[in-house]
Q: What sequence folds into this?
């Protein structure tokens, strides 16, 4: 029997498999899709995520376009905030194409000794014996493991089957399109966020002069097809419209709905929810991949500190995970609220523009390298 079975080979599942395989555990990693595959995402990896990739030793296998921080546009007001410096060096985020990044991470996991990885395999339901998850069903066959990890994304089938699902209050949706800029045009090294009443646009620099435009909005808040609406929103931002002049559209629009997913609890006997499956509030602060990578480190350390097959460590792990993500969630809620109240959002932006250190501090919290209160940076 395997030590750990992971359902879902995205950022959370693949990074956890790498850590556990390297530590000598036997791991089965099952992924429904076949790589390369697109994943609707803003594709901005925050500085703490970049540092986590470095610690994982896979940064060399990932191509990214660096960015220094975020530029918020509320109407005609613009404020540019840099991530706070780490060890006297500017902290950088990285724009990366999920098409390539997820494939690279999955391949590294598949090549890790102790990891057996399969693509094109859909995990159906958990197998429960005496009140404990002991494996999963795949194509009518039972696959057993001492521990199951549900890393199957924001709409986690395992979370649903276990009755751990909590309905999200808000029904937001996201849509993404990739472009290659025309010769001579460059995407500046910032993620641009355009906040308008009813929607936000994210523009992320990517390698090879590509860029991603992602829109977040409430379901039912616009008329007509979303793709034409997204194009219209781009054209309504003069700076963005100019940047996109002559650009080649590289992908069809891909979308996701709803954006958030909630769990009643992040674990049950024999199983831990991980990454978006454990709950995801909203991509407005762009930290989902970073959180997945950081939580993989925490989860791997927790698993490795205890006898495999014991569940006693799970409540403590959950407490530590919640503590690690609490600041991030607070800042996400605050930003969602400001996006709903753009007049106030503009005022906050003007204030932050005149207080760059405070602005940078908040971006450090969103980027996973600062605590909201307290001077200490998070370990990097
Ligand atoms: C519009 C949008 C914009 C975003 N912008 C950003 C951003 O800029 N920066 C950022 O860091 N994050 C962003 N996020 C969030 C980020 O995409 C997620 O937080 C991140 O992908 C979570 O990783 P994960 O591995 O938990 O889930 P996923 O990446 O979703 O991976 C889950 C995997 O599980 C597989 N799977 C699902 N069901 C099964 C099954 N039954 N059996 C087997 N496999 C299964 C899926 O195919 C998938 O590969 C954004 C999200 C959205 C929707």
A:
């Amino acid at each position: 029997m395997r030590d750990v079975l992971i359902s879902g080979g995205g950022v959370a599942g693949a990074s956890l498999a790498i850590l556990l395989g390297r530590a000598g555990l036997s791991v089965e990693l099952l992924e429904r899709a076949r790589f390369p595959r697109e994943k609707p995402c803003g594709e901005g990896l925050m500085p703490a995520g970049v540092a986590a990739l470095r610690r994982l030793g896979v940064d060399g296998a990932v191509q990214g376009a660096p960015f220094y921080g975020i530029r918020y546009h509320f109407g005609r007001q613009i404020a540019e905030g840099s991530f706070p410096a780490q060890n006297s060096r500017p902290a950088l985020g990285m724009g990366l194409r999920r098409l390539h990044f997820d494939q690279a991470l999955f391949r590294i996991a598949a090549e890790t000794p102790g990891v057996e990885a399969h693509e094109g395999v859909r995990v159906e339901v958990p197998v429960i014996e005496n009140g404990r998850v002991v494996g999963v069903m795949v194509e009518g066959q039972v696959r057993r493991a001492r521990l199951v990890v549900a890393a199957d994304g924001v709409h986690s089938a395992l979370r649903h089957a276990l009755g751990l699902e909590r309905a999200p209050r808000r029904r937001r949706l996201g849509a993404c399109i990739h472009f290659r800029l025309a010769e001579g045009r460059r995407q500046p090294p910032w993620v641009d966020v355009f906040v308008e009443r009813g929607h936000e646009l994210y523009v992320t620099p990517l390698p090879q002069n590509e860029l991603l435009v992602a829109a977040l909005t409430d379901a039912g808040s616009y008329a007509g097809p979303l793709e034409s609406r997204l194009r219209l929103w781009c054209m309504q931002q003069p700076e963005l419209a100019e940047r996109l002049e002559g650009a080649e559209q590289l992908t069809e629009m891909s979308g996701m709905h709803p954006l958030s997913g909630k769990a009643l609890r992040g674990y049950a006997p024999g199983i831990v929810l991980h990454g978006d499956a454990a709950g995801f509030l909203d991509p407005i602060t762009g930290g989902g991949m970073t959180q997945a990578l950081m939580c993989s480190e925490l989860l791997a350390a927790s698993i490795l500190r205890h006898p495999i097959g014991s569940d006693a460590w799970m409540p403590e792990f959950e407490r530590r995970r919640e503590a690690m993500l609490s600041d991030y969630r607070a800042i996400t809620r605050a930003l969602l609220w400001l996006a709903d109240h753009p007049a106030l959002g503009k005022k906050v932006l003007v204030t932050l523009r005149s207080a760059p250190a405070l602005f940078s501090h908040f971006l450090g919290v969103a980027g996973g390298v600062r605590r909201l209160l307290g001077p200490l940076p998070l370990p990097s």
